[in-house]
Amino acid sequence: MATTLDVVNSCLATLGEKPLNTLAEPHTFRAPAQTALRDANKRIQAPGWWFNIEAMTMTPAPLTGQMQLPGDCIKWQSGVRSSDTLIRSQAKPWIVQRGTRLYDTRTHSYVMTEDVTGEIVRLVAFDELPPVMSDYIAAEAVLKFQSNFDADNSRRQELTQAWTIARMEAKAENIRQLGVNLLNNNVRLQRIKSVTRRLRY
Q: Closest Cα partner for 90 from 103, 81, 102?
């Protein structure tokens, strides 16, 4: 599994630079490499994947009536559409995300009078990602970095090929994980499987 230092060194390698031993070492291209990784991490996680989507019920703050989203929230929307959780909730499209708070477009106010359940997409730290996702994000970061600082087309083609493979593997894992969750949390299916097991034994 790639670490932040691994990705930075991969970025530097595209320019023929020597690797760093630690992220504390000074280097002209260290900061741009870290920026490329940070941007790629947020950009790829933003749509939501099996590992960073959670159902959450928000409660108005006692004094203000407002609902403050967690600091790692990339995106929030009301209602729970997936079958990955036993929580069920109808969408309230008039409750939207504005900055780090929820806003009621019907009352034109941040003040809420009741709980709201929705799905939150969290930004997971790069070093805590599933390996298949860290590989995908690392590949994108290195490709973007190389595109910004190096004009070697042959090298870019190699990186693009690696990025394509990593992207396909990440999407395949997402489909597999969502399929497993859907089957495991489908109450009706679980009842059928339970009856089948009893009949079998």
A: 81
- Whether pTM exceeds 0.90: no
Give yes or no for a contact between 116 and 92, defined as CB atoms under 8 angstroms apart: yes
Whether residue 188 has pLDDT greater than 90: no
Digit-coded pLDDT (tens) for 43-102: 999 999 999 999 999 999 999 999 999 999 999 998 886 544 455 668 889 999 999 999
Q: How far apart are CA 117 and CA 136, in angstroms?
A: 31
Distance of CA 66 to the CA centre of its chain: 26
pLDDT given at position 88: 61
Cβ atoms of 25 and 39 closer than 8 Å = no
